[in-house]
């Protein structure tokens, strides 16, 4: 091959390297879509800025408006506890914890209330449930709570607990939402399952020996955690309610504030 007089052999080899490199990049172009998706910035519209300490540090939460927080937080610990679970004959899917405000991840924290160990406190303002532990510590879970006008507060006890419960909407709810009639108490309620509004576990709140009709329960609607959307009950992610259920005894005191 004869080179033009104006192009030295060194220049030719240099240009050839650029061409080969460009061809190599072009050959990767078809696989960059997945890379872009995996490395896309993650926006978490949480007010202000505060570093949160977990059992395994995973992220810094931002407060003060929509902020580009970079990659979604990754954690082997949270990937495990919010991973898929086979329980009671049902296959619970993994929860995409990266899409949830890290404040609402299950974690051990300092007890802010000073109640006796074993007490459950639901902080409706900040959307947390605390299970008080010895030594000034507490397990904290993110929750969804009742909409304005449906929320309940006060002291009670966990009268009984149930795995994969049937859902029996109160007659008052059925009257407001007639399409729920097929799941009424008279009709036996809704069978347990992945779409059951009570989720994988339910803990029933009584006061002075009477059923308050309010529950601590699981929910497949993980996007509702941190919000006021339910009809009064306190909902947790299914993986969290299973963990809480195993820690709570019947007759445990509960305080909803």
TrEMBL record:
The active site is at residues 217, 233. Pathway: Cell wall biogenesis; peptidoglycan biosynthesis. It holds the Pfam family YkuD. Residues 1-23 form the signal peptide. InterPro entries: LD-transpeptidase, LD_TPept_cat_dom, TAT_signal, TAT_signal_bac_arc, Transpep_catalytic_dom. Residues 118-257 form the L,D-TPase catalytic domain. Keywords: Cell shape, Cell wall biogenesis/degradation, Glycosyltransferase, Hydrolase, Peptidoglycan synthesis, Signal, Transferase. It comes from the Bacteria. Belongs to the YkuD family. This is L,D-transpeptidase. The lineage of its organism: Bacteria, Pseudomonadati, Pseudomonadota, Alphaproteobacteria, Hyphomicrobiales.
């Amino acid at each position: 091959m004869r080179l033009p007089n104006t192009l030295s052999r060194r220049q030719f080899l240099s240009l050839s390297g650029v061409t080969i490199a460009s061809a190599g990049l072009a050959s990767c172009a078809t696989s960059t879509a997945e890379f872009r998706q995996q490395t896309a910035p993650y926006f978490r519209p949480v007010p202000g800025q505060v570093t949160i300490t977990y059992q395994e540090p995973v992220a810094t939460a931002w407060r003060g408006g929509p902020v580009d927080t970079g990659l979604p937080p990754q954690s082997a610990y949270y990937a495990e506890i919010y991973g898929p679970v086979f329980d009671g004959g049902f296959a619970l899917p993994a929860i995409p914890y990266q899409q949830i405000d890290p404040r609402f991840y299950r974690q051990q924290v300092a007890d802010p209330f000073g109640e006796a160990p074993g007490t459950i406190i639901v902080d409706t303002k900040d959307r947390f449930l605390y299970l008080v532990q010895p030594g000034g510590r507490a397990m904290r879970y993110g929750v969804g709570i009742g909409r304005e006008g449906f929320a309940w507060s006060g002291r009670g006890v966990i009268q009984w607990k149930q795995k994969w419960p049937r859902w029996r909407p109160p007659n008052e709810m059925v009257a407001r939402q007639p399409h729920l009639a097929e799941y009424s108490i008279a009709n036996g309620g809704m069978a347990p399952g992945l779409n059951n509004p009570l989720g994988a576990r339910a803990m029933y709140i009584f006061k002075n020996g009477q059923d308050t009709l309010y529950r601590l329960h699981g929910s497949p609607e993980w996007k509702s955690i941190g919000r006021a959307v339910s009809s009064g009950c306190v909902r947790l992610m299914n993986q969290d309610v299973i963990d809480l259920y195993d820690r709570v005894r019947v007759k445990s005191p509960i305080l909803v504030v």
